[in-house]
Specification:
The protein is of the alpha/beta class. Helix content is 41%, strand content 24%. It binds magnesium ion.
Amino acid sequence: MTYRFEFYPYQRQFRHPLTTHHGIWKVREGIILRLSDEKGRVGWGEIAPLPWFGSETFEQALTFCQQFPSQITSTDIFSIPAEFPACQFGFESAWEECRDVAGYVWETEKISPSLLNSSLNYSYLLPTGEAALTSWQQGWQQGDRTFKWKIGVTSMESELRWFDQLVQALPQSAQLRLDANGGLTQNQAQQWLQMADQAGIVEFLEQPLPPEEFAAMRAMYDQYRTAIALDESVATLNQLKTCYQQGWRGIFVIKAAIAGSPKQLRQFCQTHDVDVVFSSVFETAIARQAVLNLATELSHPHRAVGFGVNHWFVE
Ligand code: MG
């Protein structure tokens, strides 16, 4: 079977720039893929790179698409090298849709994808800094009960003060995720974990230290009640496997759109007992749907998916 391949680069602007420890992000750039076969079946995919997380850049992905032939086979798709994890995800998910692989599963389960996805809870991404103190209500009103707040961006003193106020303001049934994007020192991470243990509403502290400090994070995992999640450390499936082999038993945040082959990700998650949270890379609805389908299959049933991000875009 050969597929006709077309691609369309896109740009999407954030309503407000997103500030994290990695810097300021204003425009999401990506590539929409379209595969079609001789029977007229069509599959859409999306390449949404995140180079500061270790994926290929947008330019590399674009060059890759320009050099790919316009007629391709599944062998071409499954031979995309691991240095192009976002391309692997985009092409494979388009191929799955074209083959209606997911559709077959839904039909046998007698349930539609949208119905299945509706069982997922979303984690609402708060703005960085003091603005979080007033913004959580918008998420709460739309039914979100899990909130995520970026830390390690400005002074520790200010962030701890806002954290205290946020914990006071949030209703008891809310849960808060703290994401440091690897921006804390060991000393700061320990302070945050102590504060989180006392607050009682922190679901986990995400990537407190940079990936090189894996051993320190693993040690902290045993010392505090608050769980620790790895994100930057496990950006691709190969990194995820390495951390698992090195004994990580905390949470794994999976940004599936840049993790590589969804087929291999499925295989790994189905054969290992891993606590995973699926998370957005600010992709469009095309990759989002593919990731939510994976999340429905593979994620921990009690954990919200990190996809409460639509309010970040100008539609
Ligand atoms: Mg993160």
